């Protein structure tokens, strides 16, 4: 295949941004990021990809199924049915989380009509080559780079197939949010030394601390099933 033919074939594929993460839980910041990728034209679709089990990450105690369900609740109650943000269960049946390189190869093999691009924060770019198959990731794969405060990078510091998340022609200002799932868990965390009545009162107060920071349907799900109640 000639370079021109390969380029034409690539341009004919649907560009899908893979927004991976633990989503433990998913927050409004994740949804804003997904929406802005679409609004900026960086991809035609965004897939939220909850990672598989992470034995190396002891704080990740929720199963991939629990986190997948919270992502579905978030997307289905935030976006209209035609808005191209969806949830992928590609890691649901994996014994552990797929490294980024292997995730992208799996998607390419299963869906050759797609052009997957990986969403990465500028704070992680410098370490990208140290990831599993990092040299190949850097040289061969495509990325959407999200700017993180304090981690501004020049074009020379980006992978060769990277696109910055920027509004076309500076037509509008990006809506940014830096809220992390770990901050939400911190606010939800209960102190195990309290008795049952005290625990219930504190629990209700802590739920209020994350209202407006996670989608309402996700918060209702967390409260109903007490998903984070026993975190320490």
From TrEMBL:
<keyword id="KW-0808">Transferase</keyword>
<dbReference type="InterPro" id="IPR014729">
    <property type="entry name" value="Rossmann-like_a/b/a_fold"/>
</dbReference>
<keyword id="KW-0548">Nucleotidyltransferase</keyword>
<protein>
    <recommendedName>
        <fullName>Cytidyltransferase-like domain-containing protein</fullName>
    </recommendedName>
</protein>
<dbReference type="GO" id="GO:0009435">
    <property type="term" value="P:NAD+ biosynthetic process"/>
</dbReference>
<dbReference type="InterPro" id="IPR005248">
    <property type="entry name" value="NadD/NMNAT"/>
</dbReference>
<keyword id="KW-0662">Pyridine nucleotide biosynthesis</keyword>
<dbReference type="GO" id="GO:0070566">
    <property type="term" value="F:adenylyltransferase activity"/>
</dbReference>
<dbReference type="InterPro" id="IPR004821">
    <property type="entry name" value="Cyt_trans-like"/>
</dbReference>
<keyword id="KW-0520">NAD</keyword>
<dbReference type="Pfam" id="PF01467">
    <property type="entry name" value="CTP_transf_like"/>
</dbReference>
<comment type="pathway">
    <text>Cofactor biosynthesis; NAD(+) biosynthesis.</text>
</comment>
<keyword id="KW-0547">Nucleotide-binding</keyword>
<feature type="domain" description="Cytidyltransferase-like">
    <location>
        <begin position="18"/>
        <end position="187"/>
    </location>
</feature>
<dbReference type="GO" id="GO:0005524">
    <property type="term" value="F:ATP binding"/>
</dbReference>
<keyword id="KW-0067">ATP-binding</keyword>
